[in-house]
Amino acid sequence: MNVKQTLESKEMMIKKIKIGIVLIYIMSCMSLAAQQSKVVDLSQRLNVGDIFNPPAKVQLMRSTDEKIDWKALEDKVVLLDLFETTCGTCIQIMPHLQELQKKHVDIFKVFVVTPQDKQTMVDFFKKNKYLKEHKVNLPVIYGDNYLRKLFPYKSIPQAILLYKGKVQAITSSGFINSENIQQLHKEGKIALPLKDDFGKASLINDQNIDNGGIKAGVIFSGYQNGVDYQPWRFELDSLTGLHKSSLYNASMYGALLSLASQAKIKASYVPRFDRVIWNVKDSTKYENFSEQPSDVWLVDHAVSYERYDMRIRTDSIQARIIMDDFVNLYGVRAYESTKKMPCLVLKKCPVVDYDGKDVGRKMTYVGTAVLAGFLDYTTLFPPVVDEAKVETRIQIGTYATIEDLNQQLAAYGVKGQVEQREIKVLVIEEVD
């Protein structure tokens, strides 16, 4: 197998990006109790349909204008793209937004809005290779405090569409496209999924609660508009007095994968797409395998779930009970199996001093077991199996191929070799 060619292929690059997204998702799901956010002042927040009172003055950079004439922009669809330099998705969509502005120059205007200071933004644009490669030069409102109060958020990107002096949409960036821009400009209004990081999710209504009608039970639903994504949470519900298990606006695959972790079905390896067996008719309804923006895909395919119990159980037992709900109500289950596949096997070898090129800043791994876990997480290579069992500290710099990696590993008497191994996999299976 030519690993270098495989890594350079477009298909592999897309897969790596998607695997990375899922791994980040799984890491966020590992805690059943969501972290408490700091209190945010929502007293000045605007909603869809409200009149937009623009700031009297903004600090503007990367613009030919010294100030913004908001009145003159009322005949254009204006996008306020809420942004911070630590947001990878925000950076990724910038070229797309710039192309939309060029395509619809007569009816569409983009402003990047950030609370960060001018020097931070200057340094960011100077150093970011991706944006320089795509020649991104959108106007930036920096040092913002006013707009952040009107449109508060917990997570970004967040897209605000203004038209005719009103807030027309508070949504996710995936819905900013030519069709929606033209529709809003032509019809003067548009109904887009609401992004509300402070929306409270509940699949039961107040009447049922007030009448004491909720004793126990399960509710399985789809996408909840205006509700932020929530990973699995097990808690005592203050409204009903019952023990509540809940998840909102997640992919079916993500929901099952994190459940499997909680149920301790698959705690021994990194979850990767190449370690998942799909025994289903159509895997695209379980996870976004297309190039469609995830926020758009979720509107049609997200799952939301609530379970109310009169008794409390351990997290692992509760997770297994919920997995039974997925079988009984949705007809899908997840379980661990094994499969023989190509793996990067770490083995012992004769020690060879490294005398190659400078590999840059090195990371230290306490043994090959830790190194194997990290290599698995990066998904640069096939699933990693540690047969070397070396416990000494290993320092490794940058590498692009197995050959690059092995040159450094040889100094510790270790090498990686692609061989067939029987390894654990997670099966997603539809049942009758």
From TrEMBL:
InterPro entries xref list: Redoxin, Thioredoxin-like_sf, Thioredoxin_domain, Thioredoxin_ResA/DsbE_sf
UniProt superkingdom: Bacteria
Molecular-function GO terms, alphabetical: oxidoreductase activity
Domain Thioredoxin: 31-190
Protein's UniProt name: Thioredoxin domain-containing protein
